[in-house]
Amino acid sequence: MRHFDLVVIGTGSGNSIVDEAFAAWDVAIVEKGVFGGTCLNVGCIPTKMFVHTADLAAGPASAARFGVDASLDGVRWTDVRDRIFGRVDPIAEGGRRWRESGSANTTVFSGTARFTGPKTLDTGAGETITADRFVIAAGSRPVVPDVPGLAETGFHTSDTVMRLDRLPRRMVILGSGFVATEFAHVFSSFGVEVTLVARSGALLRAEDDAVSARFTELASAKWDVRLDRRAVRAERVDGVARLHLEGPDGPEVVEAEELLVAVGRQPNTDLLDVAATGVALNDKGRVAVDEFQRTSVEGIYALGDISSDYQLKHVANHEAKVVRHNLLNPDAPVASDHRFVPSAVFSSPQIASVGLTERDAVAKGVSYVSVEQPYASIAYGWAMEDTTGFVKLLADPVTGQLLGAHVIGPQAPTVVQPLIQAMSFGLDARSMAKGQYWIHPGMPEVVENALLALPLKDQR
Predict the structure, then answer these.
(1) Has 305 been labeled as part of a binding site?
(2) Could you read off the pLDDT of 13-47 as tens digits, one per residue?
(3) Binding residue per annotation — 426?
């Protein structure tokens, strides 16, 4: 068996670890699919390119209230699709070519890897290898729920739905999280009739309750949203997918030409059989790591979706930097910083959040004050005629330190960024609001007003 200094499994964020600092190392990289991981190929990058296009397609429908008469002539689906993947696919292929030919000390194996013993890996490419150090960065894949008849009916996941040959007239989306709601926005903006089936009583339940409730209200006005439904059976009749549901009013059926399953993602730990090398899993089936991204086996690290609760590309990138440092400096390791991890939902309206929700604060017994500041309270909100967006802040009532920030409305991921910065560097609400200029009339004024409205004990 060939022996390496380092083996990296997965070419998402893990691929960024090996650079010129590893020139003296004998490195193997193992990838079961295309290079670039979830984000590049089936996640954040192509989906946001679809979202931007969907925003453009949705624009004419809201133009009349501004005195602009506009209409959508149509969406050239194949042109939209091919523009996006015409850019993404060459990047993935170029990454593979660069790794295969760009470095004499790096060997690429193409296959579904599986551990067969302590620090021993079947590459899935006809060769078993060993190494002193491993980085497990093999990501996750969509969950397929156990619904009778689903496999026979045929369905899409986020891995396949963006490459449809044609737009359907109707689409049923099973799920209520960020993947489901982003694709609901994309396809409905392109003229598809969307039915969204949620197991719970609200959409985006991981968000703050006020945000989840507002989004559910707005989504229900645009899409056919079925809450508190359980999928009990699927079938395809005359080319139409039929999903049988149980709900508050008894059994019902929803149907469409295409069915999208978007109920979550699962780590690829089972494909890798990490237990065979002694690596422990946590109660969620992910690789268990400490603050230095070390697993239970010395010399084996893990990062990204396969080990992280956050399932976010920016978290995986941060963890990859930590692993890189710790591989090169094992006697002076650095820890990952997961204190203030932001997230965003690129649906319509957009959502962004960081820190504690009000639900979290209550459950943890954290003392807090909160405020909700509407977009409609600022001049730019008037310009957009936005009557539904708001910024919600939670802060320590004495120190003014921000505990959580939640935004629903136009450009929410941009609006929340200065709040992430304030939390990360310990800037209190009053200092943030009063210690700098805020451009008028700009969208960040909603943040300024929210900060000033917090009912802190020190009202100076």
Answers:
(1) yes
(2) 999 999 999 999 999 999 999 999 999 999 999 99
(3) no
To the query of whether residue 440 is one of the catalytic residues in this protein, the response is yes
CATH number of the structural domain 348-451: 3.30.390.30
How is the chain split into domains, by residue range? 1-138+267-326, 141-263, 348-451
Q: Is the pLDDT of residue 432 over 80?
A: yes
- Please write the tens of the pLDDT for every residue from 362-379: 999 999 999 999 999 999
Q: Could you tell me if 238 and 257 are in contact, meaning their C-beta atoms sit under 8 angstroms apart?
A: no
Question: Which helix (H) or strand (E) element contains residue 256?
Answer: strand 250-256
- Establish whether 383 is an annotated binding residue: no
DSSP 170-198: EEEEE--SHHHHHHHHHHHHTT-EEEEE-
- Give the CATH number of domain 1-138+267-326: 3.50.50.60
The active-site residue, picked from 3, 52, 338, 440, is 440
Nearest to 302 by CA among 283, 332, 278, 279: 279
Q: Is 175 known to sit in a ligand binding site?
A: yes
For domain 141-263, the question of CATH label 3.55.40.10 is answered with no
Q: Nearest CA to 21 among 317, 293, 332, 321?
A: 321
Q: What is the pLDDT of residue 94?
A: 95
Do 348-451 and 141-263 have the same topology in CATH? no
Burial annotation 300-338 (CB, 10 A radius, 16+ → b, else e)? bbbbbbbbbebbbbebbebbbebbbbbbeeeeebeebee
- Confirm or deny that 364 is annotated as ligand binding: no
Which of 91, 99, 100 shows the shortest CA–CA distance to 36? 91
What local confidence, expressed as pLDDT, does residue 459 receive?
56
Inter-helix orientation angle 178-189/209-222, to 10°: 30
Give the helix/strand (H/E) hosting 23.
none
Is 389 flagged in the annotation as binding? no
Contact 86, 99 (CB under 8 A): no
Angle between helices 77-101 and 44-58 (to 10 degrees): 160
